[in-house]
Amino acid sequence: MNYSYAEYALIFKALTDETRLKILNMLSDNELCACNILDEVNITQPTLSYHMKMLIACDLVSARKDGSWMKYTLKNNKILELKDFLLEINKTKDNLSKDDERCNSNKKL
User: Which one, out of 74, 79, 83, 98, has a CA that is 20 to 30 A from the CA of 8?
Assistant: First the structure.
């Protein structure tokens, strides 16, 4: 598979923050209003907007306006893509280990 490493770098950058991880976990159950997220995480509304902007930018979360509030949903397809990417990295590592054996056998010569 061909991956956009720049895209995954943005995702991993977004995942480095504890608050964003908590928000993603909260969204794993269902769509949430910003007011519900604010009730659970001890941050201000502008700070929540900043975190959500990052999560939306890397395509982990979608947003829609509902009256005066925003509602957020986890994009499960992106989570599955990330899972596949990590599994592919592990598979690549296994293939590289086989190459190490070949290189080590050349040292014996």
Answer: 98
